[in-house]
Amino acid sequence: MKNKKEKTCMLIDVAIPTDRNVVQKEAEKKLKYNSLCTEIQRMWNMQCVIVPVICGATGTLTKGLKNNLEATVGKHSVYSVQKTAVAGTSRIIRKVLQAETGSLRFGDRRWFSRRSSREKRRVSRDKNNKIIIIIIIIIIIIKQKVM
């Protein structure tokens, strides 16, 4: 984002890595855009800030996420970032489970193909949502025991 009045430029990069790589991904993003930021300062004569927004696939956060979200324009909450990350993870897991069960019943199916019947989709989503919630709860419990 570029603000000509205040002569500032903000490079915002969003990533949702695996939970193990959250801290490394934040450092990687800062390192990756550091040269671009220096180039922007030199060419446009503006202050440049790198804002990495990193949240793990199951909702793991970095320590600086709250400060990074406050630096961006608009209202953004940590909760909404976590909710979006977990929803995306559950969607991926649901598609994989649908592909696995679909391949057993309906022959070879692709992971992201759509079914024609809405009733079939509702029934399988309900079952898959329960499985996904159980998987996420197990992951959270394992994390708490490790920490």
Structure in words:
The two termini are about 35 Å apart. Helix 3 (about 80-105) crosses helix 4. The chain has two domains: about 1-75, no CATH class; about 80-145, no CATH class. It is an alpha+beta fold. It has a three-stranded mixed sheet with strand order 1-2-3. The chain has helices at about 20-45, 65-70, 80-105, 120-145; strands spanning about 1-5, 10-15, 45-55. The longest helix has 29 residues, at about 80-105. Residues about 120-125 have low confidence and may be disordered. It is built from four helices and three strands. A hairpin with a 4-residue loop joins strand 1 and strand 2.
Give a quick precis of the structure.
The chain has 147 residues and is an alpha+beta fold. 60% of the residues lie in helices and 12% in strands. It has a three-stranded mixed beta sheet with strand order 1-2-3.
Write the layout of secondary structure elements.
Blueprint: E1 2-3, E2 8-15, H1 22-44, E3 47-54, H2 65-71, H3 78-106, H4 118-146
Parallel strand pairs: 2-3
Antiparallel strand pairs: 1-2
Helix pairs in contact: 3-4
Total helical elements: 4
Over all CA atoms, what is the radius of gyration? 20 Å
Look at the structure and give the mean pLDDT.
78
Shape: elongated
Which structural class best describes the helix and strand composition? alpha+beta
Low-pLDDT ranges = 118-123
Strand proportion, as a percent range, falls in 5-15%
Helicity level: 55-70%
End-to-end separation in angstroms reads 37 Å
Number of strands: 3
Cross-sheet strand order for the largest sheet: 1-2-3
User: How many domains make up the 3D coordinates?
Assistant: 2
One letter per element, helices H and strands E, the order comes to EEHEHHH
Q: What's the story with the biggest beta sheet? A: 3 strands, mixed
